[in-house]
Amino acid sequence: MRRYCNKFAISMTHHAFRTLQELGYRLTPQRTLVWDVLRQSGTHMSAEDVCAQVQRQFPHVNISTVYRTLELLVELRLVKETRLGPTRRFFEVEEEVPHHHLVCDTCGGVTHLHDEDLGGLNAALASGQGFASREVTVFGRCRTCADTSGPKES
Ligand SMILES: [Zn+2]
Ligand SMILES: [Zn+2]
Question: Beta-strand (E) ranges in 47-109?
């Protein structure tokens, strides 16, 4: 059986917990575990995904607790929330470098893009629209899905 106290000790070194404590939030096991799950996954997770992982150690934790914790972490800018489509909310650990997302409509896959991948888009938006873009999400079909959807499948 995995010992929770070890994980807790490692996590405590992270700035997230100092931030929480400095702001007067209690470091409940649920809060530390939600953060750990998200950080260790290193990817985008829905609240349901996070909840399922947390419940392995705390079966009584419910989805609303997980949502509240995620929303707190988002508020503190420790976690980034991205709405990938109308019903999909994804959470990931906030990175130093801002990034953008390509979302595949077919498989739901998410790919990261960085500013340099956008070419002249930001500059064009700034000069054409006077709009300073912060984040870009592009919906479409990924290479894998494009490759596998030949005439034989339709
Ligand atoms: Zn795809
Ligand atoms: Zn992302």
Answer: 79-83, 89-93, 100-104
